[in-house]
Design brief:
7 helices; elongated; mainly alpha
Length: 183
């Protein structure tokens, strides 16, 4: 899904979430929020793997070729939200973010496992309502967005370094050709 499609879809989800919250359908809200978070984490993982592949592929000492398709497009769709959070924990040093991601995932899992226990539904809805009233999810989404922005900046930095290296190499090649032409 392209970025503009993601934004459209996310806006649709946000409107649905607002309607569901107005009607106090908190369980449904958490499931939609989980979809949004999952998409955000997929984007972060993809961005990170692209960064790593580019760094390895452009390392002058290595002759390794990577296919980003084999790393992300196929596999990332198959892993669970919990597995994505574990993966993110390896590249994110922000303990607060990891704590919030894990809390959200535990809440989601608790809802899934207790959903068909009729007695627990009111308690689950109260727990979700408290979580939503603090706007924790939107803060969590903001923090994950800043992590993605950090990775984008790193990618851009790596690309600019590669471009400046390429320009220097091109200048050396041109200089060698000029020197050969003079002989």
């Amino acid at each position: 899904m392209e970025h503009k499609d993601y934004i459209k879809t996310r806006n649709i989800f946000e409107r649905r979430i607002a309607k569901l919250m107005n009607n106090q359908h908190y369980i449904e809200v958490i499931f939609l929020m989980a979809v949004i978070l999952e998409r955000q984490l997929q984007a972060i993982i993809k961005r990170y793997e692209e960064l790593i592949c580019n760094k390895l592929a452009n390392d002058k000492g290595r002759k390794i070729k990577f296919s980003i398709d084999s790393l992300t497009k196929k596999d990332i769709q198959k892993i669970t939200l919990g597995q994505m959070i574990n993966y993110i924990s390896m590249l994110c040093e922000n303990k607060s973010l990891m704590k919030e991601l894990n809390y959200f995932n535990r809440l989601r899992v608790e809802i899934i496992h207790r959903l068909f226990t009729v007695k627990s539904i009111p308690r689950l809805e109260n727990k979700i309502k408290r979580y939503l009233q603090k706007r924790k999810f939107w803060k969590l989404l903001y923090k994950t967005s800043t992590l993605e922005i950090l990775l984008i900046k790193r990618s851009a930095s790596a690309i600019s370094k590669r471009l400046s290296t390429s320009k220097r190499e091109l200048a050396r090649i041109r200089k060698r050709k000029r020197l050969k032409g003079r002989r």
